[in-house]
Specification:
This protein is α/β, with parallel strands linked by helices. It contains 13 helices and 14 strands.
């Protein structure tokens, strides 16, 4: 079937930088069996097109982006009809997808992949922060034929807005990109390696992470923390770390590609999440695939997998986060039990599983009777 996917970006020509790895894994699998066209709203400033992993990427670029994206979808539909439209992320992507699908009389699916259903005014984060955003989300959630999300907590947020969504986790490639590895016992005298993978920004809440680490440092545990992610806060987190006396215990790596991150992830003993909101994150799944458990705030997969395959603590609670980390570093058997349970989940719900879920969804949607379209002329 011919599929149209609408994304904000994450499909760079390089396949390594400015990408969403889980999205690339899905594209590669869908393109093996279907004709896939990706409409990227903001990958590059200027319009353009390129091939990536078997899919055709249409970059829309700046200036009346949503309207031009809809026009680009209609134009490609005239060449050969699309079977359905899939948006990854709600918001602008979802609005483009449901609008174009309505004009074409074909089904639409929206994967609510980020902060679309939340509102955190103190850090100016969330799709529902403004009245325009709330209206947009209402339109998208009501107009899509099917909504999906990666984790139970995200489904609950969507339900609070009066919509029903299905759980479709975004799995990782456990063969090539993230070769699955069962958990490995930590040596008795080995320094504990903690890993934090997230852009330095408000919603990831690195101040809570650092305050937890400062409390952990007051005990006998010997540890080092690798922090991987683009700095969007101009050195603020590094200065806070210095003020808390953590400089010698931390390494800030900045952005890393997946190939660069893999050995660091495999060397870690615990992944630490401090976010105020997550739909996933995929880093939890990546860590689990190589035998590393997660200790973090009760968001996304950390909340969903706890208590068997992760430890989750209240959002913003540095003391509880420090206590949970201390427990896992002291009790190696507990760490291994968490790691094994998480590993089983990651291997079972891998990228192939994700692609299979979406393909089954597409078969279901396209089997339904077609809707009447107000623009029958677009097929001519």
């Amino acid at each position: 079937m011919k599929l149209a996917l609408v994304v904000p970006g994450g499909v760079d020509r390089s396949g390594e930088y400015r990408v969403i790895p889980a999205l690339l894994a899905l594209l590669e699998r869908l393109s093996a069996h279907h004709e896939v066209h990706v409409f990227a709203l903001h990958q590059e400033p200027a319009p353009g097109a390129w091939d990536l992993l078997g899919a055709r990427v249409h970059n829309i670029g700046r200036g009346a982006t949503r309207l031009r994206a809809i026009r680009a979808i209609l134009a490609e539909h005239r060449c050969a009809p699309f079977c359905l439209l899939q948006a990854f992320f709600s918001g602008a992507c979802g609005l483009v997808a449901v609008s174009a699908a309505h004009l074409l009389g074909i089904p639409s699916a929206v994967h609510v992949a980020g902060g679309e259903p939340v509102r955190l005014p103190d850090i100016r984060y969330g799709g529902r922060l403004t009245w325009r955003g709330r209206l947009q989300e209402r339109v998208v959630l009501s107009a899509a034929n099917v909504l999906t999300a990666a984790s139970g907590p995200q489904l609950e947020l969507i339900a609070r807005l009066g919509a029903a969504a299905r759980r479709v986790p975004l799995g990782v490639d456990c063969v090539q990109a993230w070769p699955a590895r069962a958990p490995v016992r930590r040596g008795a005298d080995e320094t504990a390696r903690l890993l934090h993978v997230a852009s330095l920004n408000r919603v990831k809440d690195q101040p809570t992470l650092l305050r937890a680490l400062a409390q952990l440092a007051q005990g006998p545990q010997v540890f080092h923390v690798d922090i991987v992610g683009e700095d969007t806060l101009g050195g603020e987190i590094q200065r806070l770390a210095a003020g808390l006396g953590l400089t010698d215990r931390l390494t800030f790596h900045g952005f890393m590609t997946q190939r660069q991150l893999l050995p660091l992830m495999r060397a870690a003993h615990v992944l630490v999440v401090s976010s105020r909101h997550e739909a996933g994150p995929v880093a939890v799944v990546e860590a689990a695939a190589v035998g590393v458990p997660t200790v973090g705030t009760a968001v996304g997969h950390a909340a969903e997998w706890a208590p068997d395959a992760a430890i989750a603590v209240p959002v913003g609670d540095a003391q509880s986060l420090a206590a949970a980390l201390r427990l896992v570093l002291i009790d190696e058997e507990l760490r291994l039990r968490l790691a094994r349970a998480a590993w089983i989940r990651a291997v079972w719900e891998d990228a192939d599983y994700t692609a299979g879920c979406f393909e089954a969804l597409y078969e279901e949607l396209t089997a339904r009777p077609p809707r009447a379209t107000p623009m029958a002329a677009v097929r001519r």
